[in-house]
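Review form for a predicted model. The reviewer records the input and the model, then writes brief findings.
Reviewer: anonymous (R2)
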Amino acid sequence: MVSYRQKGLTNYLIRPLFWFLQKKKGIVILTFHNICKSDYDWFGEIIDYLYRNYEFANYSDLKEANKLFSETKIFISFDDGYFSQFYLAKQYLDPYRIKGIFFITENFIGLKGKKAYDFATKNFYPKSEVSFKVEDSDAMSWSDIDYLNKNGHIIGAHSMNHPLFEKIIDRKISTSEYIDSSERISANLGSEIEMFAFPFGGIENLNLRIFPTLQEKFKYIFSNIRGNFQESPSKKFIFRQNISPRDSKWTVKKIIEGKFDWKHKKIRQEAINFFDRARF
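Model under review:
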């Protein structure tokens, strides 16, 4: 397998600074998005590293939000529903018996080639450039999702079209995007959808008008705000740690340890304040 250069802050010159930051413990939910074919080996290296150095959490661990863990446990999650995620689950997760959460965007299911690329450009990256090519854009099919579900992975909802959360005012639109969509996925799979990850996942995308409805519908709601599971204000608002393709093992280790969380302290507090206002 190939080795990748460290990037950004994760260079050798600043490594000593991280020695003074306290290492966090508990459940850490890692988030992956699309992974291009050129980065499949990178993903395999990361999973192998995680398997050799950490214990993986299971569904029952998520039921114990207030439990204090003496060690770190890892949960893998994927957003959007790209075919690459299905392929990598079979290639790298299944051999280790690692189970992940796959948050599916309903109207993305089954799209391939230019149609998938155009959907991703419009809905997943409306404010930024797409970093992958058409050939890396394909979505999972219903049969792919069914395979994951039947092989012990968790399927979660991620809306119908991945809209900008904060811009939805009409209750009918929000119901169709979040509630009806999850019920259609549930009907197709023949199993209940208990988990939801709101699109984009940042503090700027939160919506007080919609959030109480989501809390009524789902047992677990995931953001993409940095932090570990125990720091989350509730199972109805769970923090995760995003991993980008070609992040080095050292970077991933520091993300898991919470060594980058100081940069997001203000955002986490804003998220906690939002949740306090949004409780139903």
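Findings: Strands lie at 26-32, 55-56, 72-80, 100-104, 154-157, 195-197, 220-222, 241-242.
Further findings: The chain has a mean pLDDT of 87.
Recommendation: see findings above.
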